[in-house]
Write a structure and sequence with these properties.
Four copies of one chain form a homotetramer.
Chain A (H helix, E strand, L loop, with lengths): L2 E7 L3 H4 L1 H6 L4 H9 L5 E7 L9 H5 L3 E5 L9 H13 L2 E5 L6 H7 L6 E13 L13 E11 L9 E8 L4 E10 L2 E6 L12 H14 L41
Parallel strand pairs in A: 1-2, 1-3, 3-4, 4-9
Antiparallel strand pairs in A: 5-6, 5-7, 7-8, 8-9
Helix pairs in contact in A: 5-6
Chain lengths: 261, 261, 261, 261
């Protein structure tokens, strides 16, 4: 089975910033989709903020097994409607991977329920990423640590909920640490946050970073059928109760009435 | 130190539904504040949906250590601004307890990042609540299980993230189960969900239910100072790095510039 | 890739108890291996307590991707050496599934670090198993609940650590609840506990139970290479530090000396 | 209420190693008990490996609310009987704090169910400890990070289960990271692991380290009554079932018979 990946790119700095355009002549999302398309069993396409509905139409979402999100300068331009559509798709079973500055994207904050803040420094310093969960599927084929010579620093405290698993922790040259790989589940959807990828550095050209993202795609993919109504709260009538019961006491609702929301 | 509790009541059914008014002549929020005020070290007040800013002004929130939330019929009438204010206060360290149908309240959904849905049946059936985490502070003084003879059924799957701890699980006469006591942490704030409390039944007059809520208040209370800026993402300049580093490579940001959000 | 499963059977009641022999004429482990061998990509064999080294020689363990454990009457007859070998294999990446009364087996208690106790009643009562984690790989293809008309009751509190995920919760006719499907990770190994399977009832002939066990095999399988030395605590010499440092201060250890254990 | 703390010291290097004796003239356990006894509401005493039953008689354990464990050179000299007694006390509700090289102590490994291994280097390098869980009770009164100029390095991967909460992560001068403050619950007992404290360095004279340990004592203390039989698996007879049921099907056990263990 082929995993259908959609790489969502903000696509702002690639067009406006000469440095970024030189590092990523194929754009960032294009670069990510490019190396994923070299993987067996993965088929990746790209959409951007500037597309109609930011490229995330109901149809596109329905045909996406795993969504990858990179944004930085224009989080506020993402519509609330698309944010909710993405969240609902995750609850239904779509996998999602948030990269780097997507920690402040609307969908990530929506799914975490926390500020998702951190400290940061843009100084091209060394980052060393340690595997903390040995033989985790997302760390497949990696050494016990790897380095990115030039990266932006992200420092703790990272304002996210306790994860299911901490897969990576980063060491920074300037003295900080950061939980760089975190797994969550939201509804039927698997969520992975991965730290590297400041747009002025060539992190998405790095072989280990590419390996993590490809691994994460496979990990995040839920092959089960997408839930049709992930937010439904069904009423179970008394006469269909699994064990025989008799209705007692006062009621607010009439038979067949919907609950309050 | 006295824990300052604010009980937020939707205060709709107490006024409009005769049954509810008879079960809770002091209102539901009034009943909850009433038994909490008999506890040593707890001082509880009430506010309602109908108050200006739903009673949750910045000042009231600043003077609330633990907020208790009960709502059902009018979740949609709670303003987004107050919802965000509550979420920020939790991230800053305010404790919060969501009761029963507050599973669908805006603040709970905001903090969970999930649909928070469930199945339900209003039949006055027996609920038996089992303690699953022995000697947990929220289960203090309880037997290993207790019963509510008349309750609404809530059934799994409950659309919430994996909790830090599962403290209670309910058995229902009609054949369902439900995770009735769940702990979370969101930022510096402790969050507890507790299931019982359908408005047509006298659950908040029950001694064990009252014990759980009083215990949960003490558990949720974070005595640390409230965080002043829980959503800040501070920049750490290169010349103040903890380890001496030299700036390298291209930059997006100027010195002293704020990050994108 | 074929997943190599070893089903470990205590094989006591099948030989000594007429009822059990009639319910499981192919033995319990034989029955489990039998339905697994009908699955694509799974190859299952059986070993028993009575085999040399209980069938779990170093070679057999090395050739097992997922071990399934059922025991009840003779937990104490399992040697500590084999228990440690199993635990080390799990830390190295072998998956393991504990069924029913294996909650009190030596390997389960070893891996949990807790008493693993529960309450119980043998009355042939109805058990209804609810899926609490929608679209979880272990719940693949299941309805939202299923029933076993005759089962032993296991009741909370279940003396285990908080799991990574709660996948199933059981309702019992006599009034109890139980967390029936729990996931853990221990080292590189995935661990699943699944409740049903009292030996006098035909639970392992039930299609849904069989589906859960087959799903769990796929979930527990870690395709990564087994760790060679899962308990090693390597010394990293100063002259091989990743960042240049100078040794300072007093030392306990000489160069190349092993650490204390 | 006064929290009764017992500090367990291995007490080997203090007597045999001149460096350690000079850094800790009052011994390590004596130093720890000393600063704890300056705290309001804490009363600390010490016992050592060399005492009868390592100082952890049934009576001493019964009168200990929180046990602190430091050991390094002589883990193997701790008897299995005392290890089990400690584990049972934790399951009953005794708090326990493991310091530094106690990661390889028998009680820690017993409670974790994992190898508890790590990488290490003894070079007197700088450690910087970051708070990852803001306003956590164990981080009370701490800055967002603090430094120990001379420490032993411990590096990831740390062979422990996913914790309830990650409270601290360390940065090391030589390039490693480590999860330095981790919380667990085992039965009714709270467990905290805290990394610093190599015996040749003065870490337990550091004010921030002392603050963490005092905070952890208060966090780990479970004021509930100790469970009397934390490993019991009680049978619930059919005629005392909470809901009326009739015994059906074949049985293994006679009325009143104990279960297998």
């Amino acid at each position: 089975m082929t995993i259908r990946v959609t790489v969502w790119g903000e696509n702002v700095h690639e067009r406006k910033n000469k440095v970024v355009a030189e590092v990523y002549p194929q754009t960032m999302h294009g670069t990510i989709a490019g190396f994923l398309n070299k993987e067996d069993g993965i088929s990746a396409s790209t959409v951007t903020l500037q597309d109609a509905e930011h490229g995330l139409t109901a149809e596109k979402i329905a045909n996406t097994d795993v969504l990858i999100w990179w944004g930085h300068a224009a989080h506020g331009d993402v519509s609330d409607a698309v944010t909710e559509r993405v969240a609902e798709a995750v609850w239904s079973g779509m996998g999602i991977i948030f990269l780097h500055s997507a920690h402040f994207s609307k969908p990530f904050k929506r799914l975490m329920g926390t500020p998702c803040n951190l400290s940061w420094r843009e100084a091209g310093e060394r980052e060393r990423i340690w595997v903390t969960s040995r033989q985790h599927p997302i760390a497949r084929g990696l050494p016990d640590h790897f380095e990115l010579e030039y990266e932006e620093m992200y420092g703790e405290p990272f304002g996210v909920p306790e994860p299911l698993e901490t897969v990576f922790i980063s060491w920074f040259q300037g003295g900080e640490v950061f939980r760089s790989g975190l797994t969550y589940r939201r509804g039927a959807g698997n969520v992975f946050y991965f730290r590297p990828g400041h747009e002025t550095y060539p992190s998405y050209h790095d072989g280990n970073v590419q390996k993590v993202i490809a691994n994460a795609v496979r990990w995040a993919h839920n092959p089960e059928a997408r839930l049709l109504k992930p937010t439904d709260a069904p009423n179970t009538p008394v006469d269909k109760a699994l064990e025989p019961i008799t209705e007692r006491g006062p009621r607010l609702h009439h038979d067949g009435q919907e609950g309050f929301r």
